[in-house]
Design brief:
With about 325 residues, the chain is α/β, with parallel strands linked by helices. It has helices at about 55-65, 85-90, 115-125, 135-155, 170-185, 200-220, 230-235, 255-260, 265-270, 275-280, 315, and strands at about 5-20, 25-40, 45-50, 70-75, 80, 95-100, 190-195, 220-225, 240-245, 245-250, 325, 330.
Length: about 325
């Protein structure tokens, strides 16, 4: 892993307008899905982004890829400021930044064969008739087919199933198709948007191990979005914990799992079951009271103050910023 940054995100915000149901559809508020996050992803690194449902993880990933237009902030990829790039200007960069979607059932076109799905990247970028050896025409298309079949084999699919359709595959196989599609143009950076959450537990480890192997083989950098902390621990070099649109803790994986400093991180980790009845019964379990506040109307001060057992008056009036505590960065006035 290099110290050179491949991705730099500064104070990124993505707000969605809330409109009335009248025929004039007036804007009556904003859903602050991502509300000022900053981090750096190093080349060859996997950064896990965790948090409960609705905290803005997936929105952050898609905004970084410019699938959503950011409301404000800055995104730098390979040192290039891409925040305000148009769709046309982003197209060449799409070969370098890709996404693996959460649901392998809805992310694949049921009317296209596996070969067409994986090979679509070559068509979109004008490479469908050009083979890996520079051949054109029918020989180029044959070379493209071989490239697609090589990718299928690399992700654990039978190349002979090139002409089969998504409904003929299991959930784990469909996710492998999505992984092969993301790899087609040899990207440098991939957003993994909860890639195993829709899969059976018995299949999840296989897919996570595959992603880990591919990272080394292809020299990839991952933003790995998940809510399963045990999966994130296995694959990530660093972990960022997100709550209500903000990053509340960012630290190396070993540090955050052994010495969490933010109360929310501590609560999340206490929910991970331990396969030892004696240890499970003796350890502290933290049950958060109340529900996640609405991102349309987040609390003033610290966003976690409505559920935090350590909240003091300062927490309700002053928003904490990320500060260094040991090896972690923590957004808390009273870190542990």
């Amino acid at each position: 892993m290099s110290e050179e940054p491949i991705l730099e995100v500064s104070n990124l915000q993505k707000f969605f307008p809330i409109t009335s149901n009248s025929i004039f559809a007036r804007v009556k508020g904003e859903n602050k899905a991502v509300n000022g996050i900053s981090f750096t992803l190093r080349r060859g690194e996997t950064l896990g982004l965790v948090g409960e449902s609705g905290c803005g993880k997936s929105t952050a990933g898609r905004t970084i890829l410019k699938l959503y237009e950011p409301t404000s902030g800055a995104i730098r990829f390979n040192g290039e400021e891409i925040t305000n790039y148009s769709t046309r200007k982003m197209k060449p960069l799409r070969t370098k930044m890709q996404i693996i979607f959460q649901d392998p059932y809805s992310s694949l076109n049921p009317r296209h064969s596996v070969g067409e799905i994986i090979g679509a990247a070559f068509t979109i970028h004008g490479l469908a008739s050009i083979g890996g050896d520079g051949a054109t025409g029918s020989s180029g298309r044959s070379a493209t087919k071989r490239l697609v079949q090589d990718l299928m084999e690399r992700v654990g699919l039978n190349p002979e199933h090139y002409n089969r359709y998504p409904h003929e595959f299991s959930g784990g196989q469909r996710q492998r198709i999505g992984i092969a599609r993301a790899l087609a143009l040899k990207p440098e950076f991939i957003v993994c948007d909860e890639p195993v959450s829709a899969l059976d537990v018995s299949i999840q480890a296989q897919v996570v191990n595959l992603l880990d192997d591919l990272k080394d083989d292809f020299g990839l950098s991952y933003l790995f979005i998940a809510h399963d902390l045990s999966v994130v621990q296995h694959i990530s070099d660093r972990v960022a914990v997100m709550y209500l649109g903000k990053i509340v803790e960012l630290a190396p994986t070993e540090e955050i799992y052994q010495r969490p400093h933010h109360p929310y991180t501590k609560a999340l980790l206490s929910a991970i079951p331990i396969p030892d009845p004696v240890l499970e019964s003796s350890r502290e379990q933290i049950v958060l009271s109340g529900d996640l506040p609405s991102p349309a109307n987040p609390p003033t001060g610290c966003v976690f103050n409505t559920r935090c057992w350590k909240a003091q008056p300062r927490c309700f009036s002053e928003e904490p910023v990320l500060q260094v505590v040991d090896k972690s960065e923590v957004a808390c006035h009273y870190p542990e």
